[in-house]
Structure formats: structure tokens, C-alpha cells
Design brief:
The protein is mostly helical. It has helices at 8-12, 15-32, 40-50, 53-60, 67-76, 79-83, 85-91, 93-105, 133-147, 151-157; strands at residues 109-112, 117-120. The protein contains ten helices and two strands. It has a two-stranded antiparallel sheet with strand order 1-2. Strand 1 (109-112) and strand 2 (117-120) form a beta hairpin.
Length: 162
């Protein structure tokens, strides 16, 4: 059997990592807004923001307490990246769907079909490695920020059409 090399993109953009990031996103949202779950379309913004290096750096460099508004102000300085979020969300749809499926199969996530919401289940994961920690921290932060703003406003601020 010949073992194929995986690309550096495939090493980062895979459904296993994506499911952990969506779980971190959901946990952040649920901890910020106790008793509430994010609407499923918000999950399709997490991976395009976290798995894009310049955007990841902007999220990481913004204090959790600053919120989505401050992040958007910083993002405006990189207008081309902000304008590309919609295209990245479309391009990463399949990865997000695969990540949702993987997370659901692994017990990390539950999809509440009756009202199209995402639940990050109560599970204990190992502490993420140093390489993964910035991604999970950014996903958690996005979840918290998104919980503070009505979903339509999140899409509007990020210039994404749901």
C-alpha cells in the first residue's frame, strides 16, 4: 500500500479539527449565553474565520471583552479579507458540513433539527496541543462574540449573506 503525503492545507483543514473547532465555538456561545444555542448557519462562519491565518491573527489579537464590534473595526483595516469572508464561507461549506457530521458522530455536537440549532455537548476533551490551541481559543472567542449579537447582525457585520 502506497501512503500518500497530505498537504499542509489538508493537515489543518480537515473534518476532525473542524469538529473540535465547531465544538469550541458552540461551547463559547453556550457559556456566554446560558441556556441558548447558536443557530446552525453561524457554524458556517467559524471555520472560514478561524482557518484563515490573517483573520485568526485578528481574532487572537482582540480581547474577549472587546466583542465583535471591535473585531470588525480591526477587520475594516483589512477590507479585502473582510470582503472575502462570504466567498470563504461558500468555499468551506463542504468542510463545515463534514465537520458537523464528524462532530455529531463523535458525540461532540448535536444538531437540533426542529429549530436548526447547534449544541456543543458536555464532553471532556484532552487539552489541545500548542499548535491547535490558537485555533480552539479563537473559535471559543467567536462563539462568545456571536452570542452577544443577534444572528442577522453577525451576518451583516461580516458582510455575509446567509
Amino acid at each position: 500500500m502506497v501512503r500518500q503525503q497530505i498537504t499542509s492545507v489538508e493537515a489543518v483543514q480537515n473534518a476532525a479539527l473542524g469538529s473540535v473547532l465547531l465544538w469550541s465555538f458552540g461551547r463559547g456561545y453556550q457559556e456566554e449565553k446560558m441556556g441558548r444555542l447558536p443557530v446552525l448557519p453561524l457554524a458556517f462562519l467559524c471555520l472560514p474565520l478561524v482557518l484563515h491565518r490573517p483573520t485568526l491573527e485578528l481574532v487572537s489579537g482582540t480581547f474577549p471583552s472587546s466583542g465583535l464590534g471591535k473585531f470588525i473595526v480591526k477587520f475594516e483595516r483589512h477590507r479585502e479579507d473582510l470582503m472575502a469572508v462570504h466567498d470563504r464561507a461558500l468555499a468551506m461549506r463542504r468542510l463545515t458540513l463534514e465537520s458537523l457530521s464528524t462532530g455529531s458522530a463523535a458525540g461532540l455536537l448535536s444538531i437540533m433539527y426542529e429549530d436548526a440549532r447547534l449544541r456543543a455537548n458536555e464532553v471532556k476533551l484532552r487539552k489541545p496541543s500548542e499548535r491547535i490551541r490558537p485555533y480552539t481559543a479563537a473559535a471559543d472567542k467567536l462563539g462568545r462574540w456571536f452570542a452577544r449579537v443577534p444572528a442577522p447582525n453577525v451576518f451583516s457585520l461580516l458582510r455575509v449573506t446567509p
